[in-house]
Amino acid sequence: MKPKTQIDIKQLVRKNILTMKPYSSARDEFKGEAEVFLDANENPYNSAFNRYPDPLQWEVKTKLAKLKGIDPTQIFLGNGSDEAIDVLIRAFCEPNRDAILITEPTYGMYAVCADVNAVTIQKVLLTADYDLDLESLFKQVNDQTKIIFLCSPNNPTANLLTREKIKTVLAQFNGLVVIDEAYIDFTSSESFAAELSNYENLVILQTFSKAWGLAGLRLGMCFASPAIIGILNKVKYPYNINLATQAHALEALKDVQKKDAMVAEITSERDALIEALPSVKMVQKVYPSDANFILIKVDDANGTYQKLTDQKIIVRNRSSVALCLNCLRITVGTPEENKRLLQALKDLSK
Ligand SMILES: Cc1ncc(COP(=O)(O)O)c(C=O)c1O
């Protein structure tokens, strides 16, 4: 079946990236079975880490592809999904000419990576209930716009963006649409991964940092067409995912149930917090959550943040962020941690 949205990747990618010759590592140039490896200037003496890792992480990708119902050639792995964000911008946006479009409020790294790369940031406010405002979005889009970043469930607001609205953006925008699904495991909503064959401009980000509980490993996933993944592979550092991370990810992927059990515990704790928080006097509003965190509006976010910090409880003060005046973002912790937070908020309300 023909995809609903087709793009000419050669038109979209930066010309120098299209024509450049990528670095070819020793591990790229020899792939067969051998006994004596004298090709990569490694140290021959025995250690768990004396050899360079697989530059394209095929073993991890093969396992991951099965789990996600896609092909290994549709996967890019990054040093966190933050690396994928940076590589996408570097590969597709010409510095001092092109733009990315972000919706506000949202995850901060899209703008930071654009700034680092001298790429213009086009900003569109979400609606009052934190959904996409399609009219304003399409008004902002122009010839400069190469990538639209949509975060769903969104950070810091915790809600999913309306699926049909995301599909409209995918269908009508001729550049890349990146859907950041860092928190997708905490919702019953389907990932957009199943839509890859429908939209050639679709790029999906997921991560091992949240549901898998492996933020310290730094492993992010990016799913897209093999053509887009090929471009990202051209730009990334040759050995961007180290051996320890690849080995640890393979172990984690053997036990998907462990991840599912953690997600079930966290979502049940989240729902309990959402039920309990409205009875706390200082809490004006508890926003719905499809993530592992909750956004709340309180009487005085700055004061509450400081007083919680004094009690060694750290939440994220989002009060200075667009549409989030007096809002705190609270990550769901263990039952004991959540109890302590709730008690502290109750005590501060007295
Ligand atoms: C929406 C979103 N995307 C990406 C990331 C970063 O993920 P990673 O740890 O894989 O770099 C975060 C981290 O908080 C996030 O909230």
Descriptive report:
This protein has two domains: 9-254, Aspartate Aminotransferase, domain 2, CATH 3.40.640; 257-349, Aspartate Aminotransferase, domain 1 (Alpha-Beta Complex), CATH 3.90.1150. The longest helix is centred in the C-terminal third of the chain and has 21 residues, at 256-276. With 350 residues, it is α/β, with parallel strands linked by helices. Strands 1-7-6-5-4-2-3 form a seven-stranded mixed beta sheet, sandwiched between helices. It has helices at 9-12, 15-19, 26-29, 58-68, 81-92, 109-116, 134-140, 163-172, 226-235, 243-253, 256-276, 301-310, 335-349; strands at residues 75-78, 99-104, 120-125, 145-151, 176-180, 202-207, 220-223, 283-286, 293-298, 316-317, 327-331. Bound molecules: pyridoxal-5'-phosphate (PLP). Pyridoxal-5'-phosphate (PLP) binds at residues 80-82, 107, 151, 155, 180, 182, 207, 209, 215, 220.
What's the gist of this structure?
It is built from 13 helices and 11 strands. It has 350 residues and is of the alpha/beta class. It is globular and about 70 Å long.
